Amino acid sequence: MALREIKKHPRDEILRKKSRKVDKIDQRIITLLDDMAETMYKADGVGLAAPQVGILKRIVVIDVGDGLIELINPEIIDAKGSQIGDEGCLSLPGITGRVKRPNEVKLRALNRKGEEIEMVGTGLLARAMCHETDHLDGILFIDKAMSKSHEE
To answer: Of 104, 132, 151, 152, which is the active-site residue?
Structure first.
């Protein structure tokens, strides 16, 4: 495993590009999943999307405190309720914003074995699922923020 450089907004334009679907899960994808998890933990994040490490692939890792979740080609298939809360991003250090998100999200994805999985997330997990899947379409939380603040 290796730490990857986290791309920063606005310097790194890759953060605004749409990611490509993963067609084949091979050793390069497995290595990327491992590296992304290590990078996320080292940076004290709760999620990381492949574009944030310079790879335009639809891959996300999340850990809100209940263990690592790896998602390949995640797709939100249902959303319910709403919540408003503060968000930050490893690609936008020092910036937070209040963002309205669904309170419950159901998504479909592949795991590292290529098996289709469905999972439901509520609260912080739902927020992380939405935040990270947005990254795959070049959307940053600041695009949806009701208000932003810069931490000094």
So the answer is: 132
